[in-house]
Amino acid sequence: MSLRSKTQKAKKFGTPSAPSPTAQKSSPTSPRATGGTPSAPSPSAQPRTSSPKTYGITQTQAVQEQFKTRLQALTAPIRNTIRTLTTRVEALDKEGGGRSPDLGARDSAKIVREQIADEQKKIQQIEQEQHDIELQSNVNQIIQAVESGNVLAPDYFQNNIAWVRTGAITQQTFLDAYYHLSNQGIIHSAPTEQIIEEPIIELPELLPEAEAQIEPIPIITPAIDDSINTNMVTQQVINFNIINGRAVGSIKFVATNNFNPYYYNKEIVNLVQFKTPNGVTLLVKENRLRFTETERDEVISYDENIQENTRITVESFVWEWMDKPAGAFSNMFSIYLKEGDPPKPVMTGFMGAGVAGAIAGLVLLGFIVDSKVGK
After folding, report:
1. Average pLDDT for residues 4-27, to the nearest whole number?
2. What CATH number labels 233-374?
3. What pTM value is reported for the model?
4. What pLDDT, on a 0 to 100 scale, did the predictor assign at position 46?
5. Which residues, 6+ apart, have CB-to-CB distance to 246 below 8 Å?
């Protein structure tokens, strides 16, 4: 049994990109999920490079050296100018700082220093431009590899591609999410088939009548069972109360004997919706569940601000993904909370909950869409 607090599991949905990865550690959204947009690198910063094992696109040492060589070639004339100006200002400093100070030399030295500062700004500008070009090249290379099928990525990573193309997220955020998913093995290179050369066996020639009687042997490809039904996961409230205007409690999720083994060691999504009695959505929390053959239950804890409400309804869903209610592993789990009273079950079922369940699903999906647009 694994017990995870909300600080470990629960997070609000936003721009994909999974949890604030950095390219230094080899990193979407998420996203699948989201991190904020990272601050821009300093003008003199070298581009971040990552080598996520053997998954997907990596930057080799040779590529990094080529980048440095290109920068040195572009900035070499400016650096020569800076060295000349530095020699000049040192000579002027000696003239202006002697026993008989030369005030003209001091003024000249000040002007030369300003020239040096201007040249250094030119170098920083060139480095920033080359850094941006390198980022764009990496992004284009990754997108081309994913779209050509040379690199396999989950469907939701297409959101990251669309967002970086439209400028909704930065190129660095896109790369952070990509390298993060590569490190986890979620994004990886397409497997290559080993070519085995077999000896050529010459068959005796057949008469046309005999050839007509030979039927081709059908190739049977075993089907992958990735089916989902609402009897695969059960939900049980451990405790839930309203304390000082906050909903505090835990829900236990258990993979039943009907759980499809195909989804072992794969992340599935738990979405919890906090609503007022009249149906106004206060908050939606997203959590990730991962069951294995040996760990078939998880407990998620909540401590959420419900805006001083003393009565709320808590609705919990277990889906294949956050915007895919058709892949429901469990019926909707719903409890009614009133401050000072124990939790009371409201109803069960989502896909089979009739009109009320359908409305609850539409409210939740609408909240998710609004979250995406807001981000």
Report:
1. 36
2. 2.60.40.10
3. 0.39
4. 40
5. 303, 304, 305, 306
